[in-house]
């Protein structure tokens, strides 16, 4: 951090543009990538475009868009001018979008074409300008005849300070109460440097971006960090389904990828395990704990090749990683690493790299940041994780009450997460404090641990464990399509006369799910301590609603 006098974007961007001028910076997969010099020129033209639109320092401008090179261009141009960016998650509906635009008092919005319909549904009378982000076409403006020109030059001499407000990030998280997190330029750049200290990023290395840039995780570690280091970031034109992602990874051959647990857990459950179970020989080897490592190692080699064959860092963050899946990654020698943080901490607080990762732990704290367990349990050392440092937010926008609730007078941020340190200073995450269920005799029950057992049961897609009227209840979503296919394979009667037997077939599937549910409850209760036993299991027919990092919105089901 001593490299820059000021940790501000105007200082940093001009430096990296000069330093890495001919390196590839941003682009779509399998398309021409813009160089750092071209990126710098486009950022400067965008700054001039803002001037024409009469958007000035301190104004709030929203970005409501899928990932693309222009997302970063607009974002960096704003930062270099002191305009406050308001990144909005693409999966926010029109009502959530409207709330964010009103609360932030956004003056303008850059929107991708595929999301324009949601913007149309939202009341947007307060916006002075609406710009299509793909080509900077003006869809609405109080100023007429303004056209973006790549050769425009910005004549502003204003250079924002490092403690100036940089972004307002709104996240519904799992609380249902969307708050605008205020992060400064120093918060963001500091945290990118902190992340780069955990995993060294080399110039020319390739990132493949699959998580939304409007989330702090991808924004700081998947955009700001690689640009600081002269690396290259590629984006997908379509959502990251397997049919899109697999060929993209073969083309890009990424060195770095950032994901959430749900992505790799799906790969494990839907690809790795079915392939192993397909043959009797591999099935036998997998069932033996002494030969399982060999099977996982072979599967890991194939998986590594699928990811392009150059991967050196596969980051997993945003939620707790399932222990069974993590054990597979370790035995497979797959280069995974776990990180932990929150939007309010820019986001990274602790993490490891593939060489230093340890099973079911996150890793040590990031540099230049303090972490402590507040009021730890004397028996096991567990307690709420508190953090202090230059990556901690300025506060919640227009909400001093909430800010005071989470920030102590001496600057400690109360994360709301339970954790514990081992003797080597590695942090382990035990779950959300608000999710913790206290048993009848004061025992701590961690729902996430029970959910891990449930989610590894056959035909289960996902689950949540909650307390209702003093009872421990599991809500479970089974893979109905998978069960239907299995029943069709087993029963010729239903496949031959399906048109006549639809009602009977549906009844058969329902019966199979009921039997599975009964078996699952017994399965859980033989694997947990007596105060963590499930008293009621409810089949949930639809997928659970999730946040941007694919965490279930628990508040909707508690």
Describe the structure.
With about 550 residues, the chain is α/β, with parallel strands linked by helices. It folds into three domains: about 10-185, Rossmann fold (3-Layer(aba) Sandwich), CATH 3.40.50; about 260-430, Rossmann fold, CATH 3.40.50.12780; about 435-555, ANL, C-terminal domain (GMP Synthetase, Chain A, domain 3). Helices cover about 35% and strands about 20% of the residues. It is built from 17 helices and 25 strands. The strands form six sheets. The chain has an eight-stranded mixed β-sheet with strand order 2-1-11-10-12-13-14-15. β5 (about 110), α5 (about 115-120) and β6 (about 130) form a beta-alpha-beta unit.
A few lines on this structure:
By secondary structure, the protein is of the alpha/beta class.
- CATH architectural name of the largest domain: 3-Layer(aba) Sandwich
Q: Strand order of the main beta sheet, please? A: 2-1-11-10-12-13-14-15
Tell me about the largest β-sheet: 8 strands, mixed
Number of domains: 3
- Percentage of β-strand residues: 15-25%
Query: Separation of termini?
Result: 44 Å
Tally of DSSP helical segments: 17
Principal-axis shape equals globular
CATH superfamily of the largest domain: ANL, N-terminal domain
Given this structure, which CATH class of the largest domain is correct? Alpha Beta
Portion of residues in helices?
Answer: 25-40%
Return the structural class: alpha/beta
User: What's the CATH topology label of the largest domain?
Assistant: Rossmann fold
Q: Which spans of ≥5 residues are poorly predicted at pLDDT below 50?
A: none
**What is the rounded Rg?**
25 Å
Total number of β-strand segments? 25
Question: How much is the average pLDDT?
Answer: 92
């Amino acid at each position: 951090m001593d490299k820059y006098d000021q940790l501000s974007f105007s200082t940093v961007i001009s430096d990296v543009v000069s330093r890495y001028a001919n390196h590839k910076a941003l682009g779509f997969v399998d398309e021409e990538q813009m160089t750092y010099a071209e990126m710098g020129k486009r950022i400067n033209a965008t700054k001039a475009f803002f001037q024409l639109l009469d958007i000035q320092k301190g104004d709030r401008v929203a970005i409501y868009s899928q990932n693309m090179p222009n997302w970063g261009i607009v974002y960096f141009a704003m930062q270099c001018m002191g305009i406050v960016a308001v990144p909005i998650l693409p999966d926010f509906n029109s009502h959530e979008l409207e709330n964010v635009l009103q609360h932030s008092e956004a003056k303008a919005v850059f929107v991708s074409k595929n999301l324009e319909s949601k913007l149309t549904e939202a009341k947007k009378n307060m916006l002075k300008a609406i710009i299509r982000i793909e080509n900077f076409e003006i869809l609405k403006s109080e100023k007429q005849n303004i056209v973006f020109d790549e050769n425009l030059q910005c004549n502003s001499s204003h250079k924002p300070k490092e403690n100036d407000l940089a972004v307002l990030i709104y996240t519904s998280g799992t609380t249902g109460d969307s708050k605008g997190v205020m992060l400064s330029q120093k918060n963001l750049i500091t945290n990118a440097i902190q992340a780069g200290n955990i995993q060294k990023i080399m110039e020319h290395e390739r990132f493949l971006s699959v998580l939304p840039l409007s989330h702090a995780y991808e924004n700081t570690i998947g955009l700001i960090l690689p640009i600081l280091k002269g690396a290259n970031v590629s984006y997908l034109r379509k959502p990251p389904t397997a049919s899109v992602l697999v060929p993209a990874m073969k083309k890009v051959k990424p060195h770095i990828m950032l994901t959430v647990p749900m992505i790799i857990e799906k790969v494990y459950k839907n690809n790795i395990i079915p392939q192993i179970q397909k043959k009797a020989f591999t099935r036998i080897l997998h069932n033996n704990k002494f030969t399982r490592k060999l099977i996982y190692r072979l599967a890991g080699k194939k998986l590594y090749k699928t990811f392009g064959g150059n991967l050196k860092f596969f980051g997993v963050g945003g939620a707790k990683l399932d222990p069974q899946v993590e054990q597979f990654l370790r035995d497979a020698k797959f280069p995974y690493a776990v990180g932990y943080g929150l939007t309010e901490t820019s986001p990274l607080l602790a993490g490891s790299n593939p060489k230093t990762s340890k099973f079911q732990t996150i890793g040590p704290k990031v540099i230049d940041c303090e972490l402590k367990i507040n009021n730890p349990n004397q028996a096991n050392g567990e307690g709420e994780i508190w953090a202090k440092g230059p990556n901690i937010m300025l506060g919640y926008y227009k909400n001093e009450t909430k800010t005071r609730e989470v920030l102590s007078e001496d600057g400690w941020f109360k994360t709301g997460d339970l954790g514990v340190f081992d003797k080597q200073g590695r942090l382990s995450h035990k779950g959300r404090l608000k999710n913790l269920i206290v048993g009848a005799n004061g025992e701590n029950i961690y729902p996430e641990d029970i959910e891990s057992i449930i989610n590894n049961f056959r035909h289960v897609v996902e689950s949540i464990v909650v307390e209702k009227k003093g009872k421990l209840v599991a809500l479970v979503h089974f893979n109905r399509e998978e069960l239907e296919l299995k029943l069709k394979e087993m029963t010729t009667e239903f496949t031959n006369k399906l048109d006549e037997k639809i009602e009977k077939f549906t009844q058969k599937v329902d019966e199979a799910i009921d039997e599975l549910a009964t078996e699952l409850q017994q399965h859980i209760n033989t694997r947990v301590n007596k105060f963590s036993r499930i008293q009621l299991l409810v089949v949930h027919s639809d997928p659970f609603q999730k946040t941007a990092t694919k965490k279930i919105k628990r508040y909707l089901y508690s």
